[in-house]
């Protein structure tokens, strides 16, 4: 046969194009598109289905310890298997530095964890919590050149947060070396102050997490993060946005031509703060930061998904078992302050967006492809190897059955979390066949992928990280004073 695999009669949809035709795959890459004459060792008839670029999930926590020291429930096997079942063929988890650690060592450790287990391809972002001279001067520039071209920094969480001063150091470095900085934007002191007074009055249940993490804490930190980026003319991406005012702030920054990118997640279209309001400690299952808000915020998130304020829709999969060893719900021993933050979402990210977005007419399939795959690959330096359907690109594809009805049951999912925050929800549309580098890894509910068959991807320095060349006027004068932190 001329090809390893040919998908026939597909309705092929990418971020830019739609076409009816065949996809021929050889040696893991797309070899031909259109009317393919040659035959395949294997052929799949995709009549009546959509073929989309395999999902790229650029915000996932796998085999990572939280700021509070709690271990994720998913390792690189269950995490990537769960991703594949949900139509995702690339993940970008974090290699997380905790204070005192060498970033180089951190990266080695995550590779050791991922290499023998991952079943789909992966890159890494770095989490920088300790920007020492060694990290800023040597480790980060070298790691960026080695293909780790994005890093996340935190404005909150005691163990991870960096100061505004440190943010400027990191932004200036990213600007100079061609990396993209991702920011968790919440005002730490506002949250701590509210939490302290809630706990003082005996309000310790999970539902108070959604009160302590006030909307204005997200709005303020988003505004401040953008101001810091403006000072030094560094592009920035604000992760997991949930809130109306913060979204407006990003929209305005973009309207002024600033390179501010933004991400949102399934929990902000499908959950609300009321979900945390459950008897006893049950609400911990819906705890994430920022917390889900209300229906008005959900509408603002949809507006941002439609109008392009959001570039990427990621899961922020942060899996913690509610009944770890049958004892402690997500670490919640005394108050909501100790509870692990995060909800699972790797497997349902795309089905939820398809069902709630495409099927309802809120977004079209091109936007779906952009938000679920293409923009992630572009923003983080993996395009066009990942994120599209084009000759020469990796054959990472998801064949979607738009009619397939699924009722969410955690028992049918493939993560190791033990519950789903979306239990009982109706979903219309499902990725029935998932292909990673030409390998059919999921088909009709069955997995066919060996542990360790996923490959590490080095990220290029992304266009998104290129500065505008317009720092704040005072910053621009620094060169004349002999100070050149930017160049
Ligand atoms: O609640 C969340 N989002 N937990 C994961 C860690 C993070 O801040 O992304
Ligand atoms: Zn975060
Ligand atoms: Zn909290
Ligand atoms: Zn996260």
Poorly predicted tracts of residues: none
What is the helix tally? 13
β-sheet strand percentage: 15-25%
Tell how many strands the DSSP assignment holds. 18
Helical proportion?
25-40%
The kinds of small molecule bound in this structure are: N-(aminocarbonyl)-beta-alanine, zinc ion
> Which geometry do the CA atoms define?
globular
CATH topological fold name: TIM Barrel
CATH superfamily: Metal-dependent hydrolases
- Helix-strand makeup class: alpha/beta
- Radius of gyration computed on alpha carbons: 22 Å
Distance between the termini: 54 Å
Largest sheet: 9 strands, mixed
CATH architecture: Alpha-Beta Barrel
What is this structure, in a nutshell?
With 487 residues, this protein is of the alpha/beta class. The chain has one domain: Metal-dependent hydrolases (TIM Barrel, Alpha-Beta Barrel), CATH 3.20.20.140.
Topology of this structure?
Elements: E1 3-13, E2 18-26, E3 29-34, E4 40-45, E5 50-53, E6 55-60, H1 76-85, E7 88-96, H2 103-114, E8 121-122, E9 125-127, H3 133-145, E10 150-154, H4 164-177, E11 180-184, H5 188-200, H6 209-212, H7 215-232, E12 236-238, H8 244-255, E13 260-264, H9 267-270, H10 295-307, E14 312-313, H11 349-358, H12 365-379, E15 397-407, E16 426-436, E17 439-443, E18 446-447, H13 473-477
Parallel strand pairs: 1-4, 1-5, 6-7, 7-8, 7-9, 9-10, 10-11, 11-12, 12-13, 13-14
Antiparallel strand pairs: 1-2, 2-3, 5-15, 15-16, 16-17, 17-18
Helix pairs in contact: 3-4, 4-7, 7-8
The structure holds N-(aminocarbonyl)-beta-alanine and zinc ion (3 copies).
Task: Walk me through the structure.
This protein has 13 helices and 18 strands. It has 487 residues and is of the alpha/beta class. The chain has one domain: Metal-dependent hydrolases (TIM Barrel, Alpha-Beta Barrel), CATH 3.20.20.140. Strands 1, 2, 3, 4, 5, 15, 16, 17 and 18 form a nine-stranded mixed beta sheet that branches. A hairpin with a 4-residue loop joins strand 1 (3-13) and strand 2. The N and C termini lie far apart (54 Å). One zinc ion binds at residues 209, 212-213, 289, 341.
